[in-house]
Amino acid sequence: MTWLRSGIFRRFLLVMGALSLLPVALLGYHLVNLSRVGIQNSVLELQTKLAEKLSQQVDDYFNAANSNISFALSALNGSLPWSDKQKLLESLVETNAAIQKISMLNPQGREIVKICGPSLPCDDKLSAYSGEKGFLKFQKTGQRTVALLPDKNLPALCFYIPLNKSVIARILMSLETLASRISSETVNGTGFAVLVDSRGNPLFYPSGRLSKSDIASFHSWPIVADALQATSVGSSEFSDSAGMKYVGAYAPVASIGGAVIILQPWRDAYASAIRMKQDAMSAVVLVLVFCLLAAFFLARRLTRPLLTLTRAAEAVSAGNFQTTVAVGTKDELQELAETFNTMIEKLRHYSDLQVDRIIAEEGKRNALLFSIDDAILMLDQDGRIQLANRRVFELFGLEADASIEGKSLTDAFPESPLRDAVAAVAQKPRADFFKDLNLSTKNKHSSLRVGAQHVVSPQGQSHLGVIVAIRDITLEKELDKMKEEFLHSITHDLRNPLGSAIGFLDLLLKGTAGVLSPAQANMVSSVKRSSSRLMSMVNNILDIAKMEAGKIRLQLKPISLAGIASRSIATLESLALNKRIRVELAAAEEYTAEVDGDLLERVFTNLLGNAIKYTPEGGNIVISIKDDGTIFTCCVSDSGEGIPQEYLGRIFAKFEQVTGQRKGGTGLGLTISKFFVEAHRGKIWVESEVGKGARFYFTIPKGLALDAEGNVVIQASQAESVS
Fold first, then answer.
1. Rounded Cα distance, 115 and 123, in Å
2. N or C: which end of the chain has fewer CB within 10 A?
3. Which pLDDT does position 635 carry in this prediction?
4. Which of 49-63, 415-429, 513-527 has the lowest mean pLDDT?
5. DSSP code of 507?
């Protein structure tokens, strides 16, 4: 059943199903839509005509009643005696079952005379109608008024007709015949008619077709609002307040300002269309099942040979070149299988030729890795070991035949600082990131440097993994240590005699041992300057030693940065004047900060001294200080020779000087300046181009303070601003 999981099988089955289903579905949809539209039009047309017919009947009913009443009242305006008029009214009530009562009212609305029909019990008591809405409306207009009287059983129609200035006729007319006629109208057994007044309230409707909640909210139904606003017949589909869908039609009734509305549940109205849609869907499903079965068997016939080829290709990829494919479909698939067999035969031959070459290349690679003193470890993208030389096994204390290929660092090596260092550099493989480890014991000194680089494809387009190199730097560390111990010893041995010599030179210059001639004074001054320069070099070397030992502590207090720069300028003013160099301080204010004034003065002095040293005669030097929000930015710029690009990244290293620009000094001034600036939690850098001078920048954060341990920290508010 492997062919069931084949992508080709599923796609072929899907395409065949779609090709068979789409035409049938489109045709069925088109036919169902045409039938639905036709049935919908027929239903709406039938309901519209019925609504129009009932509307006309309601208008005819009221017009006929109006004509009879008008005829009778016209006789009352004649010259007949009152007894004859009363007989005429009694005859009108007896012959017209719809008229329930005729009353003659005075202008105040009280009955003068009343005549009751057989359907309405009547006593001798005269009533007053001054509070009826219809009478109140009549009083406002003084004209003939028709009003509907609401009744819990059946509404009635009331006419108010002026006979003369002192008599008003009130005629009460029953609507039972009209209600019966409207209630009896049906549409296909489920549709019914409703007569609504001018406010949308239902007057007549079949019993049991509207619930109490329907009656209460009937005026808010969408079709009712459309019917009351319409001037002609119309129809629509809508949902009532409970969400039930209806199909309806309406026609306005001008005589009462209301409308006749025909309602039928949506499912009942379109029952035939729904059945047709269901039949069409059944037909589509049958066609789809048939087509899918046909596509199923055809797809299986096509995919079986392809799956056979796939399994053979997998075997070949695993190195099995003895595989062959047998397909007897006598079509293009059989030709493909024969071509595949030919390809396998050629691959088998090629594989036999390459085995010896691969063995030879493997031997060369192993010999190369074995002879390298550095430990080489190659990891793939997932951090699993792919290659390791013998030195790796020695450093981690593993047996030479230990199996570590394919394992992670955690699984392959025991926990140790070396393993942690390898894992750290493997996470950030780059040339400038490495880890130095001191693994020395009482009997043996040992230092290792661990670094990593990306392994890239020959085209350099993708990373294949990480190569980790572990180099023994024990000898280098020992040489550095010997060099530093030698320098420290020399500087201490030089400082004491130099201090004594400078002291005696001062005594000579002051004339303590006798007055010196001008020539002698010049020679002694020259010796003192050389001794002072030598003492400065010795002090620089000692400062480097203190820095590396962590023995320099800052003494912070509020000091003017501009004042510190001014003192540095004053200290080196004579050197600048000798070369006719103009030194300028550009500071808008004092810029007070919490700093160690002595250390910052040495920074300014070192940078200014270098600028004077490398600026030609007649040049310019500018020391600028500015406020950059959370930091102060200081700059010493000159118009000297400039620094080549390749030295910008290492100019702050110990003993580093630009080749071809050596003009004395130890090469430690910038190193010390960098340390002092960073001790203030600041940064220092240089920008320069050859022939365009150099600009040394450093920053001092605001809000510096010392914590309980004497370390420099940035206060919380400033730290948030800096971050």
1. 10
2. N
3. 96
4. 513-527
5. H
User: What are the percentages of helix, strand and coil residues in the chain, rounded to 5?
Assistant: 50, 20, 30
> Comparing 42 with 470, which gets the higher pLDDT?
470
Is pLDDT larger for residue 299 or for residue 210? 210
Joined together, the tokens standing for residue 191 give 């549709």
Calculate the alpha carbon distances from 670 to 111, 296, 497, 553 in Å: 123, 82, 27, 19
Cα torsion through 613, 619, 623, 629, rounded to 10: -120
Distance linking the first and last C-alpha atoms of the chain: 63
Give residue-wise pLDDT tens across range 267-320.
877 777 777 777 777 777 787 777 777 777 777 777 777 777 777 777 777 777
Enclosing H/E stretch for 192: strand 191-196
Q: Are 448 and 418 in contact (CB under 8 A)?
A: yes
- 8: which 2 tokens? 């080709």
Q: Which long-range contacts (CB under 8 A, 24 or more apart) does 242-249 make?
A: 242/213, 242/214, 247/40, 247/43, 247/44, 247/47, 248/47, 248/223, 249/44, 249/47, 249/48, 249/50, 249/51
Contact by Cβ (8 Å): 600, 566:
no
d(CA 105, CA 196): 30
Distance separating alpha carbons of residues 476 and 434, to the nearest angstrom: 16
Enter the tokens of residue 706. 């010392």
What DSSP element (H or E) covers 411?
A: helix 409-412
- Rounded to an integer, what distance in angstroms lies between the CA atom of residue 169 and that of residue 69? 10
Per-residue b or e along 492-529, where b marks 16 or more CB atoms closer than 10 Å to that residue's CB: eeebeebeeeeeebeebeeeeeeebeeeeeeebeeebe
Report which secondary-structure segment, H or E, holds 548. Answer: helix 518-549
**In contact, 334 and 327? CB cutoff 8 Å:** yes
CA distance linking residue 187 with residue 269, whole number of Å: 9
Predicted pLDDT at 622: 95
Angle, CA of 26, 27 and 32, to the nearest 5°: 100
Distance set, CA 257 to CA 148, 193, 199 (Å): 11, 17, 9
Is the Cβ–Cβ distance between 697 and 686 less than 8 Å?
yes
Q: Does an H or E element contain 56, and which?
A: helix 7-76
Q: Contact 249/234 with Cβ under 8 angstroms? A: yes
* Strand-pair category, 631-638 with 620-627: antiparallel
Continuous H helices in 318-400:
332-371, 390-395
| Tokens coding 226 | 């459309």
